[in-house]
Amino acid sequence: MRMIKTTAAFALMLALLLTPFKTAFASELGGTVLAQRASIRTGPSALDPAAIEVPKGTRLAVVRKGTSWHFVRFGAVKGYISASDMRLDGEIAPLKKLYGTAVRQASLRIKPNGRSAGYHAPAGTRIELVHYERGWFRAKHEEAVGYISASELTGYSLSPPAGHKYAAAALKKLILYSGPGERSTALRNIPLGAGLDVLDVSGKFANVAYGDARGFVKLDEIRIFFAVSAGEIDETRVSVDYADHAKGKIVNTGVQNYTYAMMNDAIKKLKRRFPKYLTVSSLGTSTAGRDIPLLLLGNPEAPRRVWVDVSMHAREHMCTQIVMNQVEFLLNNYDMGVFEGKRLRDTLSNVCLYIVPMGNPDGVELCQRGLASVKDRAHREYLRKINLGSDDFSRWKANIRGVDLVSNFDAKWAEKETVADSPAPYGYKGTHPLSEVESRLCAEFIASVGFDMTISYHAVGGELYWWFGQEGSRQDRDFLIAMDFVDLTGYSLISKERSLTDSAGLKDWAIQTFHTPGITVELGPVTSIAPIQIGDFLQIWERNKFVLWHAANMFG
Q1: CB contact set of 65 (below 8 Å; sequence gap of 6+)
Q2: Which domains occur in the chain, in start order?
Q3: Tens digits of residue pLDDT in 406-427
C-alpha cells in the first residue's frame, strides 16, 4: 500500500513538474539532449555545479540560445547546458571545419595583400580556414587570426565533400546564371548579403542553391564559409571589416600609439565622408584644456540611447583605436549592413550611440609623449615627483592630476580601497567623488540626457563586468544582457564576488543611480599588460567589432 501511495505521489509530482515545461514549447525554442548524460548547471561553465542530470533524448525548453551554453528549462529547473550536449529544433549538424597545409613558411596578414599580422606558420603547419574570398582565406591557428593567400596552402578544396555543402554570402547584387558562364541565361537576381548553399566550384564559377533556385554565380562575387549553414549567413559575413576599398581606410589600426591627434584627424575625415550619419560634438574640456570629443552615431532625436566611454585609463589607449575602428566599421555599413537580422540603418533611426572615444586625453598624451605633453613647467616637475622621479610615463593610468578616473564616481567611493592615498600614476581615488573634471563631465552629461545602457571600454583581462548590486528581475535582465556579450566576444564573465571589490567606476555609478544595465569590457588577452601591443590588435578586433552594433540592436 505504501509503495502504491508513493508511486502515485511521484506521478503527481512529475505531472506538476512537466506541466509548465510542455506549455513552454508553445512559444519557446526546444531541443533534445544528445549526450548520454548531460548536466544542467547553475552557471555557463563546466566549473559551475550541476543542478540536475538529464539522459539522452530528454526534451528541454530553451529560454535563451547561446553560442557555447544554452539557458534552458526542464520542468521547474532552470540552468545552463553545453551547446555541444544538445541539438536545437530545426538545427542541422555542424559542418566539418576545413583545413589547409602551408606549402612553405606562410604569413598571416592583417588584410588581403596587407602587412603581416606578426604570425608566421612553418611549412607543413595545418591551418584552420574560416572563409574564402577572391584568392584569400580568413584563417586562424592557435591564438593567431589573419588572412593567408590560397597560393600558400595545399590540401583543401573549395568544392564541399560528398554529402556536404558550404555556405556563401553575396558580396554584391548577383546574377544567378543557368550555366557556368556569362553567356548562359540569367535566371534571377540575388541581393547583397544573401546566404547561398555552395554545391560545387569549378573554375571561375560556383554551383549554388538559393532558396528553391539552382544555378551558377561568379566565384569572385561571393565569400565562401566553412562550418556554417546558409541560414546563418547575414551581413556579419559581408560587412566591410578591413577597408572600404573604394575610398581607403581612415582609422589607423597599424600603429602602437594611437594618439589624440590621430583620433581627432580621423573624426574630421569620418565626418567629411559621412556627414549625414555622424554628429560630432564635445563633452567639454579636460583639466589641461583639451577638447573631449563626443560622437553621436545614429539619430540624435532617437528615443533610445547607449553611452560608450573609452580610454578613461591613460595606458589603455588601444581601446580608442578599437572603438574608432568600430565607428568606421558601422559608418561603412550604415546603408546596407544587416546584423542579427536587423538592418543597421533601421536600428540607428531608433537608437543613438553616444561615444566618448578618449575620456582622458591629458593622461593618454602623458602616457605616450611623456612630459613633452605638459606645458606648465611646475606641473611637469610635480608629475615627475609623483612618478617616483622617472620620466617614463608609459604605464601611467591616471589623469594629469594623478587621480584614477575610474575610481572617482559616487558608487561605494568611501568604501573603495586603493593602493595610493595621494596623487599617483594609478590607484588614487581623489579627495571626493567626481573631484575631477573628466569624471564630472561624464556624470553630468549622463544624468542630463538619460541612457538605456552604458558600455565602458578597458584594456586587460579578456573579461566582462556587469554586476553592481542588482537584485531580482533587474539582476536577471542584466545577467542575460551580459551573457549576450559573452557569446559575442568570447570573454569570460566576472563573478558578483569579484565585482564587489572593484567599485566607484562609471558603470557602477550608472547601475546604482539609474538602474540601467551596464558592462565594462576588458578587451586585452588575459596575459597582457597595458599598453597592449599592436600585435594583439587583430585578435582583439575580431572579438569586439560587433559590440556596438549588437548594443544598438538591443534597443532598436
Answers
A1: 29, 88
A2: 2-88 (2.30.30.40), 98-154 (2.30.30.40), 166-232 (2.30.30.40), 263-364+437-555 (3.40.630.10)
A3: 999 999 999 998 889 999 999 9
